[in-house]
Amino acid sequence: MNSEKSSPRRIAVPLGARWREFRIQILPVLAFGTALVLAAILWQQAVLPVSPTSRCVPSPTAQAHDPDALVVVPGLEQASHGGTNVAARTGARD
Description:
Elements lengths: L14 H33 L8 E3 L11 E3 L13 H5 L4
Antiparallel strand pairs: 1-2
């Protein structure tokens, strides 16, 4: 008798079965991870509040260590102060 064992031949898995297993096991994890990443990006872009301090940029003629030479960037007021507030447009008062 032959003492060496021959390894059994691998059975080919049909492409349909592989696709089904991918859909059941991997695709939900990928979809959930993608949704989390997109939600985090959306949260950072649209939901997080703007800091109350205005953004300042250094003046082109200012030295790097001179705090008095900062220029305030216009147009950073809050949305509630603009004309897009629904209560302001409809004339609703508290």
